[in-house]
Each structure stands twice: as structure tokens, then as C-alpha cells.
Amino acid sequence: MTAAMPVAPVPAAPRPSPSSAAALPPQSVLPSLLLKDMRREVQKEIKNLESGDQVVAIKAAAALVMLARLPDATPFLPAAITRLISFLHDSTLSVHLQRNACAALTAIMTCDPSLYLTAAKAPTLALGLVRCLKGEPESQVDSGLQLNAAAALSVLAQQKEGLGPIQDAEADSAIISALTSAKDAQVKEEVVDALCALSSHENMRSRIVQKGAVSQLACVIQDASPEVCVRTLLALGMLCGSSSEAQVELAGVDGAVDTLLALMKSSDHDIKSISQDLFRALTLNQKVRPLLEHHFRHLLPE
């Protein structure tokens, strides 16, 4: 972090494998906060969000990430959601404020099921997150904002109530596109997590496959880090496990079969196991078998 970047994505929201959040005060602040009136604290930060001063609002959004960790704050956090979402849609605002707004929304959605539902029902949440993930046309996308937007979309995708807003906002298309457009390794890892969350819903898989997710994921595993690779394989496993169409698409991607064969020898147990299951599914598919036979025939010396 430099003086020019007052905030940056760091671990925050209490969810499995978090990858992004806002800059937070030290943990030693928490015991003193527990002694204060939660209602007053949350209302103060909401007022700061509405102050019109972006520096004040940046700090307020970061404070809300911290407050969302405290159970006593839960009843008072819904009032912050609408204001935080509004920041996602304003291209004139500091990218640091938008980063922290995404992180605060992630923290709020993960701290309590009722808050998740409140956020998921907000009509412009998914649209705002898609905007942050894609960035403005003709301008460079901020990787920290992408990271936090992808993390929020990943949380939104975990429950069925978030699927409607995601489909309406075409967030699944944006996530699939970001698989190849994202240059930052952490962003790519978070994007794959979001696609895994979507793929875990059986009623979303056909839609995701039709949008080209399998071919994009098949390209990602060919040069992915172990962390991204295992997540990518999980997504492919969910999409290709029972879909003949997805299996044919996977086998047809240049380099995908060779990559699976290599991953089957990995020292990483999860990578090895999932890639073996994927390859086994391909060999059992009557439509894929001719593709595999043609592939291996060309590998044999003449």
C-alpha cells in the first residue's frame, strides 16, 4: 500500500477462502467497540456515508466491514445497504470508495442470512457489481475493484435468492468474460470462485455452459496456479459431470485433453482426483470417445 492508495483489498468478510475487502483498523479496536452502543456506531457510519466527503465515506465503508463482524450490529446494518449500492453506479467517485463499498456489501451479506436476503432483493446490486467487475469502457479496469466486485458476486451467487438478480444483470456473462480478461492472479482466483458458486446450482449449469464457460475454464487450467487450477477443475466437474454437451465441448478445446492427462499426475491430491474424474467422464461419453481416439492416434509415432 502506498500513500496514493489509502485503501486496498485485504482479507475481511467471514466466508470460506475470502480474497478481498477494505482496509481495516487493527483488531485491538474490537474490544472497545463491543462496549459501545451498536446502533449509534452504525448510524454514525451511515451518516458518514452520506456526508458528501469521499474520504469520510471511504473510512465509513471500511468501518462497516468491521462492524459487520459483530453480531450486535446486525439489526442496524440494513440501512447501509442502499447507500453502499449507490456508490457502485457512480463513475465520478473514487475507486477506493467503490472498492470499500463492495467489501462492505460482501461483509454485510455474509454476516447474517436476513442481511443477505435484504441485499439480494435490492434491484440494482448485481448491476452495480457487474459494472465494477467490467470497469468503464475505454478505461483501464482497477484490479482491486475487480477483486472486491468478484468477491461480492461470489457471495451473492451462493444462495438461490441471488440467482434471479444475477441472471437479470447478466452477471454470469460478465464473470465468464472476466475468466480470460482478468490479468491479476488474485482477481482470476476470485472470478473462478464466483463461477464455482454459480455452477453449484443445478438450474444454472445449462445456462452457464451455453454462455461458453467450459471452453473458457478449459483455457484457464492450462496455465493456472495450483490454487486457481483446483477451483477451475471444481467448476468443470460441476458443469461437465452430467452434461454430455459440456463434455464434448471440453474435449474439443485445444490442449484440454493433454492438460487433464498432465494434471492426473499432479502431486496435489485434489487436482489429481478431480482431473481423473473428469477424464473418466470423457472416456465414458460415446460422443467424446472418437475425439479422444483421434487425439491419441496423432500422439503415436508413425
Describe the fold and architecture:
The protein contains 18 helices and no strands. The chain is an all-alpha fold. It folds into two domains: 7-26 and 85-133 and 141-211, Leucine-rich Repeat Variant (Alpha Horseshoe); 213-302, no CATH class. Helix 4 packs parallel to helix 7 (125-134) and helix 11 (185-199) packs parallel to helix 14 (226-240). The model is unreliable at 1-21 (pLDDT under 50).
Features:
single chain; mainly alpha; Leucine-rich Repeat Variant; 18 helices; 66% helix; disordered N terminus
Radius of gyration: 21 Å
Strand/helix succession? HHHHHHHHHHHHHHHHHH
Largest sheet data: none
Estimate the helix proportion, in percent. Answer: 55-70%
General shape: elongated
Structural class, by secondary structure, is mainly alpha
CATH class of the largest domain: Mainly Alpha
| Multimeric state | single chain
Beta content comes to under 5%
Mean pLDDT metric? 86
Output the CATH homologous superfamily of the largest domain: Leucine-rich Repeat Variant
How many strands in all?
0
Which residues form runs of ≥5 with pLDDT under 50? 1-21
CATH topology of the largest domain: Leucine-rich Repeat Variant
Separate helix tally: 18
Task: Summarize the topology.
Elements: H1 30-33, H2 38-49, H3 54-67, H4 78-88, H5 95-111, H6 113-120, H7 125-134, H8 143-156, H9 163-168, H10 171-181, H11 185-199, H12 202-210, H13 213-220, H14 226-240, H15 244-252, H16 256-263, H17 269-284, H18 289-299
